[in-house]
Amino acid sequence: MYNPNENRYGDPENQFTRPPRQAASTMAMAALACAIIGIVTSISGIISLIFASLGILFAVLSKGTNPRPERQARFALRLSIIAVIISVVVTAVSMITVINQYGSLMNYYKAYLYTIEQNYGIDLEEDYGIDLDEDFGIDTEQNYGIDMNTGETL
After folding, report:
1. Widest distance between CA atoms in the chain
2. Around Cβ 138, how many Cβ atoms within 10 Å?
3. CB-based contacts of 107: which residues, under 8 Å, 6+ apart?
4. Residue 145: left if φ>0, alpha if ψ -120 to 50, beta else—which one?
5. DSSP states of the chain
6. With the CA atoms of 120, 46, 54 and 20 taken in that order, what torsion angle do they form, in degrees rounded to the nearest 10?
7. Phi then psi dihedrals of residue 146, to 5 deg
8. Which of 96, 101, 130, 97 is nearest to 116 (CA)?
9. Euclidean distance between CA atoms 48 and 54, whole angstroms
10. Cys bridge to 31: 19, 53, 76, 135, which one at CB 3.0-4.6 A?
11. 8 Å CB contact between 11 and 20
12. What is the rounded distance in angstroms from the CA atom of residue 10 to the CA atom of residue 104?
């Protein structure tokens, strides 16, 4: 028979009490933390992949023997997958842009080293043993139209 003083939680004295929530497991919280870091760093590309991968791993491991993962773990898994997708897209777009602009990643690296030498006055050959002409087989004056000694345009 129906008793209006009883609630479904078995506490007839106070109908508004609920059983205490169980705290999320440490692994689920670690997954959530890694997922948030993965989302925040997603525009950096590679760093985000590390944290997002850890977030996915921790979210999967947090399930344990439970039939269904915890709410925090499910949310962390979704965030981590989103972070992976964003970082892969950002990395791919960056590579495509660099290759379109410089022709190859090696040409970009050469231009980067040349810019360091010219803008910051760092002598790569003397300080680090990097010689653009010998190491890369290029004549920087021919490729960039700038005299390396005087800095004048040829």
Report:
1. 100
2. 16
3. none
4. left
5. ---TT--TTS-SS-TT--PPPPPPPHHHHHHHHHHHHHHHTGGGSHHHHHHHHHHHHHHHHTTTT-SS--HHHHHHHHHHHHHHHHHHHHHHHHHHHHHHHHSSHHHHHHHHHHHHHHHH---HHHHH---HHHHH---HHHHH-B-TTT--B-
6. 80
7. -130, 135
8. 130
9. 10
10. 76
11. no
12. 70
What's the pTM value of the predicted model, to 2 decimals? Answer: 0.64
> Is residue 11 within 8 Å of 39, Cβ to Cβ?
no
In order along its 154 residues, the chain shows pLDDT tens digits of 555 555 555 555 555 666 666 666 888 899 999 999 999 998 887 889 999 999 999 999 888 777 788 888 899 999 999 999 999 999 999 999 989 988 888 888 888 877 887 788 777 777 777 776 676 665 555 555 555 555 555 5
